[in-house]
Amino acid sequence: MAKRREEPDAPNRLNRIAKKTDICFNIIFAVLALMCIIPVIFIFIISISSEESIRHIGYRFIPESFSADSYIFLFREADMILRALGVSFVVTIVGTALGVMLTTMMGYVMSRSNYRLNGLCTMIVFIPMIFNGGMLSSYVVNTQLLHLKDSIWALILPLLVSSFNVVICKTFFKTNIPDSVMESAQIDGATQFTIFGKIVLPLAKPLLATIALFLTFGYWNDWFQSSLYITNTKLYSLQALLDHVQRSIEMMANNPTMGVTMTEYMNSMPKEGARMAMAILIIVPIACTYPFFQRYFISGLTVGSVKG
């Protein structure tokens, strides 16, 4: 008597992916990956294209001629570039460290059901997700009350805590940290800071990586805070410097009768290539940072999901 083939159980059968579907998914992901990579390659090609080639045929993947003038220009302006790069690194590192600390602490407190002010704190955190006081009120508070204008803290404090990140932390702690673990630690005499530092945080590595990645991207790519609060060029971040160069080029193009020295300097500058070279300089550090977060970031994306 022939053996009857064993039928796979229902969960495994539902979780299987047909070969054609798998091929389609691979094609879609490959296309999405190319959509992310090709613009970066295109920017790099423009940065090594000569100004004559850009002037004659515009932006092309295969220019008429190549040139390293853009990177030579950045090397000549090394002091300015390195100072702006240092500001970006300081703002990103300090802002990310403080932001992760404050966000996780707020999320942990709000995740405890026995906290008396839980409802009030949740409402205070949730309201800014719906609406805020507007740019004018933020500017008045940061400049007139906190006196942050022309201070490096003006680039850090406004982006330090996000309601969205706090809600993510609250959801993670509430669904992934068992109350029994907290109660056992409290019975052993552990304080809330001990529980948070020695029990909760080691179990929350995916969450920490996710929040850190969000904050790192936010700080590194921010130029708007500099345009609002910074007039001292020594405090320009790399992104703000790129924006300043862009506006200077546009100003020179619209005012060709400015001073001879400035005009000659701007004419000798590889305008399009220099902007793209600075963009490459901005992209490379953050692209090199992402692989260190990737291991935990994928797990962090499923925060709050239903477990089987």
From TrEMBL:
It is a multi-pass membrane protein. InterPro entries: MetI-like (IPR000515), MetI-like_sf (IPR035906). It holds the Pfam family BPD_transp_1. Coiled coil: none annotated. Gene3D superfamilies: MetI-like (1.10.3720.10). Keywords: Cell membrane, Membrane, Transmembrane, Transmembrane helix, Transport. It comes from the Bacteria. Its main location: membrane. The chain crosses the membrane at residues 23-46, 80-105, 117-140, 152-173, 193-220, 274-293. It is found in: Cell membrane. GO terms for cellular component: plasma membrane. One of its GO terms (biological process) is transmembrane transport. PROSITE patterns: ABC_TM1. Residues 85-293 form the ABC transmembrane type-1 domain. Belongs to the binding-protein-dependent transport system permease family. This is ABC transporter, permease protein.
